[in-house]
Write a structure and sequence with these properties.
Shape: globular
Largest sheet: 2 strands, antiparallel
Number of helices: 8
Helix content: 40-55%
Strand content: 5-15%
Strand order of the largest sheet: 1-2
Order of helices and strands: EEHHEEHHHHHH
Structural class: mainly alpha
Radius of gyration: 15 Å
Distance between the termini: 29 Å
C-alpha cells in the first residue's frame, strides 16, 4: 500500500505528518538534497533510497533515531558507480559508511544511535556489527529497499494503524 506523497524542498516524501515531524529539518538541509544527484540502485537516486529506508522504519517502535539515521545512512555524496578509489581506499561498500558519517556530522548533531546506524548499515559486509536494535532495523530495511530498487520493483509501505499497535518512540 502506498501513501500519498508530499513535496519538501522538491523531495517527494510520504505524506505522513508524524514522519515529517521527525525528519523535516534533515530534508530541508541542502546537503541532504545533494543526494538526488546520484543513482544508488537501478534508477533510484540515493535520496529516494534513503527516504524509502527511513520511512519504512517509522512503523516500528524505534521511530526517531531510525528514521533520522535511515535518511542519512548514505550521505556519501558521490556517484559510486564511477568513483575512482584513491590509493589505500577499499571498495565503496566498505568505505561509504565512514564518508556518510563524516558528512552527516558536519551538518547535524547526531545521537550515538544515529551515528551507529550510519556507520554500521552495511553489516555484515563490514565486520563490526551494530550496537543498537535501531541499527539492525536499518540494516534489514536497507537490504530490502536495495533489492527492490535494483530490480525496479515498488518499495511497499504498510499502513501502520491497521497492522500494528500505536507507535511509541524509544528513548
Amino acid at each position: 500500500i502506498r501513501r500519498s506523497k508530499t513535496d519538501i524542498c522538491s523531495i517527494d516524501v510520504p505524506h505522513d505528518e508524524e514522519y515529517l515531524a521527525l525528519v523535516r529539518d534533515l530534508l530541508e538541509h541542502p546537503k541532504v538534497g545533494l543526494m538526488r544527484e546520484y543513482i544508488q540502485h537501478g534508477d533510484t537516486t540515493c535520496l529516494e533510497h534513503c527516504v524509502n529506508v527511513s520511512y519504512l522504519v517509522i512503523f516500528l517502535q524505534v521511530a526517531r533515531a531510525a528514521a533520522r539515521g535511515g535518511l542519512l545512512h548514505d550521505l556519501f555524496l558521490y556517484d559510486w558507480h564511477f568513483y575512482r578509489r584513491t590509493k589505500g581506499e577499499r571498495l565503496h561498500g566498505f568505505e561509504h559508511p565512514r564518508k556518510a558519517l563524516k558528512n552527516a556530522e558536519e551538518a547535524f548533531s547526531l545521537t550515538a544511535v544515529e551515528r551507529d546506524i550510519i556507520l554500521r548499515h552495511m553489516w555484515p559486509l563490514t565486520i563490526v556489527p551494530p550496537k543498537y536494535a535501531e541499527s539492525y532495523v536499518i540494516v534489514m530495511y536497507d537490504k530490502y529497499c536495495s533489492t527492490m530498487e535494483t530490480f525496479r520493483l515498488p518499495v511497499m509501505y504498510l499502513e501502520a494503524p491497521a497492522l500494528l499497535p500505536p507507535r511509541h518512540v524509544m528513548p
